[in-house]
Design brief:
The complex is a heterodimer of chains A (about 290) and B (about 260). Chain A is an all-alpha fold and about 290 residues long. Chain A has eleven helices and no strands. Chain A starts with a helix and ends in a 5-residue tail after the last helix. With about 260 residues, chain B is α/β, with parallel strands linked by helices. The termini of chain B are far apart. The chains are: A mainly alpha (about 290), B alpha/beta (about 260).
Chain lengths: ~290, ~260
């Protein structure tokens, strides 16, 4: 009884908010798409009222804003009803983007952790590298991405690795910043304790700094994986890439196929949610093992 | 080993250079602690008692004078793992169980696995935490956490125990209890203890010798041999000898202040 009501307490508000969003979306779709219906009717010399307009706005071929069910149908059509090797399959494009995302994420995380370790252990790096790390992120990535792709192409790197490098460029940042803070989390007393044991720098790192930094690492990883996905999509835009969510969105906008753009957007959002969720699961597992999940 | 004291300091000086000018944390400190003694350092904040302990532990470097620990320099003594240090806060690693916290120094010092298990068990038994090894620090009370941190300092064989106000943050009842346990522990292990405190009853109750210190500059103003017997039930704190001793410490502290405050 109590558990059931507890579940309801969680599900009910979430469901209400989701329904509210969908409702607002429908209203917006009617509002934004109505103009085209009116123009069509005026051209044909027909008088139409809201009773005609509302259902018509739900099923336009090229709506300004597609209705939720149209997007849902499009996603269903391009995932469940297409072979995943088909170029019309969203799963096919999703995997192309996801593989670049994951590779870039791993590269970015490794780079971020290495930089953080260097910054924490080396004063010269602390003073010299951090400003560059910060300024690297103040440059608009949309402007930098094509240059990176071109430069990499000229040294013989293209395709997956080139896209992944854009992901890495974005995702190393939160990891580096978070890990610098995390590796510095141990207080003077904890460091003194290690000193009284005459612990080596290596031991201080593995037994104190690294475990102290894990909560910071997981928080950074969640941000990093989400922007790694953004990076992969951006990496697909300038190359006229043959596949991926980015290529899909670009195609959609070339041919005025709003539904394709929206389904690619949702595909990307779902991928991001799944990856962030997976990191959350890993985080809980680690925290439980180390007694920090209460 | 060499017949020398566990800690021998002579004309020890330490000046911190701060932004507001030099701070004389220790001035002309002479001290000899014999093996097996329980020496308390008492004084108001800023008197250098913690600094002195940190110099013994090689966590601070003196700017003048000499000091030896077990006949070695503090640095050599630290590398030889000559002492266990107990800080003001328990400072247990929250991601390790109590057992694994006590095992930490053994891991760092490279004890073999089988020996670690035995030593952890023995150290936890010494502080009556034998049944709590698999718990995480947050599951224990503050007093139990501090006991675990004492076990951590006892896990390896250092004959010298340096304790920096280990019970300062605990309430009176827990503190009394831990004081009793610490005395028993001292009797059982025969370790040398240097104990920093700002509580007069605690210093008098525990110590074989009390070092009274005074601030600005941090220095020793009185060293009192305790006439109390080794066997000390809590009730001894109402005895005449105990009260006399406490008065002498209090007067020492006051005289240290009087000369400076005008």
């Amino acid at each position: 009884m109590y558990r059931a009501s507890g579940l309801m307490r969680n599900i009910l508000p979430v469901a209400v908010i989701c329904l509210a969003i969908v409702a607002v979306w429908y209203v917006a779709a009617v509002g934004l798409n109505a103009r085209w219906e009116r123009d069509q009717a005026a051209r044909a010399g027909v008088e139409i009222g809201w009773a005609d307009i509302v259902p018509a706005t739900m099923s336009q071929k090229r709506p300004v804003l597609p209705a939720p069910h149209q997007v849902a149908v499009e996603i269903w059509e391009t995932t469940a009803n297409k072979r995943i090797t088909s170029r019309r399959s969203l799963v096919y494009h999703g995997w192309i983007t996801l593989s670049a995302t994951l590779l870039g994420f791993v590269m970015g995380v490794a780079l971020g952790i290495l930089l953080a370790v260097g910054i924490v252990h080396n004063r010269a790096m602390d003073l010299s590298v951090m400003p560059w790390i910060i300024s690297s992120q103040t440059v608009p990535i949309l402007a930098v991405a094509p240059m990176i792709i071109v430069v990499l192409y000229n040294v013989g790197i293209s395709g997956l690795v080139a896209k992944a490098s854009i992901s890495a460029y974005l995702s190393f940042f939160p990891v580096a910043v978070g890990m610098v803070k995390g590796l510095r989390a141990p207080d003077g007393m904890q460091l003194d304790l290690m000193r009284t044991y005459s612990a080596s720098a290596w031991q201080v790192f593995w037994k104190l700094r690294w475990p102290s930094s894990l909560p910071y690492l997981f928080a950074s990883l969640k941000v990093a994986v989400a922007i790694a996905l953004v990076g992969a999509i951006i990496g697909e835009l300038p190359t006229g890439s043959q596949g991926g969510f980015g290529a899909r969105m670009l195609n959609g906008s070339y041919y005025g196929q709003v539904l394709i753009i929206w389904s690619a957007l949702f595909g990307a959002a779902i991928c991001a949610a799944l990856m962030v969720g997976a990191i959350g699961v890993a985080q809980r597992a680690v925290l439980r093992r180390t007694g920090q999940a209460r | 080993m060499t017949g020398a004291g566990a800690v021998v300091a002579s004309s020890l000086d330490l000046v911190f250079q701060t932004r507001d000018g030099p701070v004389h944390a220790l001035s002309d400190v002479d001290l000899e602690v014999a093996p097996g003694e329980f020496v308390s350092f008492i004084g108001p904040s800023g008197c250098g008692k913690t600094t002195l302990l940190r110099v013994i532990a090689d966590l601070e470097q003196p700017t003048g004078g000499t000091i030896t620990v077990n006949g070695m320099t503090p640095g050599q003594a630290r590398l030889n793992r000559a002492y266990g240090y107990v800080f003001q806060a328990a400072g247990l690693y929250p991601w390790r169980t109590i057992e694994k916290n006590v095992r930490l120094p053994l891991e760092v010092m490279g004890y073999p696995a089988q020996e670690r298990i035995e030593r952890v068990r023995r150290a936890l038994d010494l502080v009556d935490l034998g049944d709590f090894g698999r718990m995480f620090p947050w599951q224990l009370s503050g007093g139990m956490q501090q006991r675990a941190s004492i076990a951590r300092a006892l896990a390896f064989d250092a004959d010298l125990l340096l304790m920096d106000e280990p019970f300062g943050a605990l309430d009176e009842i827990v503190r009394d209890h831990l004081n009793e346990q610490l005395l028993a522990l001292h009797a059982r292990t025969g370790k040398t203890v240097c104990f920093v405190t700002h509580s007069i009853p605690e210093a008098v109750y525990l110590s074989t010798r009390i070092v009274v210190m005074s601030p600005r500059p941090g220095r020793i103003i009185d060293v009192i041999e305790s006439p109390l017997p080794a066997e000390r039930p809590l009730g001894i704190r109402e005895s005449a000898t105990f009260l006399e001793l406490a008065t002498r410490v209090r007067e020492g502290l006051r005289s240290g202040h009087a000369g400076r405050d005008e």
